[in-house]
Amino acid sequence: MAERRRIGLREVRALEPEEEIWDAAVPGFGARRRAGSAVSYFVMFRTTEGRLRRYTIGRHGAPWTPDQARDKAREVLTDAAKGSDPAAEKKAKRRAATVTELCDAYWLDAEAGNVITRRRAPKKASTLRSDKGRIDKHIRPLMGPMKVAAVTPRDVESFMRAVAEGKTAARAKTGKKRGLSNVRGGRGAASRTVGLLGAIFTYAVRNGMRADNPVHGVVRPADGRRDRRLTEDEYAELGSALRAADASDIWPAAVAATRFLALTGWRSGEALALRWAETDLSRRTATLADTKTGRSIRPLPRVACDVLCDLPRTSDLAFPPTRGKGQMSGFRSLWDRIVKRGSLPTDVTPHVLRHSFASIAADLGYSEPTIAALIGHLGHSITSRYVHSADAVLLAAADAVGRRIATLMGDAAVAEILPLRTLAGAA
Asked: What residues does each domain of the chain span?
């Protein structure tokens, strides 16, 4: 056991990741910092049967201080000396926790970086925002009062149907000026929210709140949004809408971002976060340090480079917001205005542009690995093969797809380039 010393604020703040300290005043009382920034207080004791127990008191600052935690440790040790088992009692109470309490615990750990994804990394800020929205808008209203240990697969299926049928649909003001949250529900929202619910119950199992995961075995509906692609007529309508938007009062950076998304197949979050320092227009590449799939180098079609070259460099962001220094948070409402101006169906989303780009690439005969490298799919990052920039094969593929889309949108002075089948096959 490490050297004992009285635990105070200085000792807690000095803790290194995965380090723990033991208190000199109260035997068995200690503090531990996990891999992230969170520090938890605990106390070790033996039951009257001689079993060693570890009782977690709580996290530093939420609301525990060293002195409060030390007093709680004394209470636990006193109860244990009288023959009770505080750790077992606490575990029983946790098993009786509600889904709301489970979501609270999950969210705190996720926000502290203690929930690890399949990529063995903490969740990104954008993912955390999406998770919080699904928890607050869908899970809490429909399942919040239920006991964690009592939830069954049938309950999960009922929850999924309710979200799919729009029972949680609502419009509410946000904390931002003129901000409005529009929760629609639907099959896609149901599928993604049940996926998050499965992760939350996996967390419950790992923390002893129940023995199994009720989401396992529940068949989720397919997210039809990923199967949607633009028709040639819709591409023409999108082009007309963008040209009309160029001459309107719609924020020019939002119009440019929409055109850029159509020509590159990027995720909207990647484009809105793009900084000039990440672009190399002479090599026609962009190096994205932190995407959904990690670091990624993307080839840029010439038509997409033209979009960037036409933008004023008034910010370190390629597509800055109307005001402030952050990313363009109002892009979705501006997108809706562009879609409405082009009389496009309401199911045309920024993700549809991504799927359409990949579909056009497939139509031109490019292989799946080439398409995956163009749009930065997991497992096919250019980074694994190209250190500084994309090679001629991928640049040619990006040009062919970008020019084809520009032609479909009716952009002037776009010469059609036929894909070289030998290059596509080599890729």
From this structure: 9-91, 99-222, 228-426
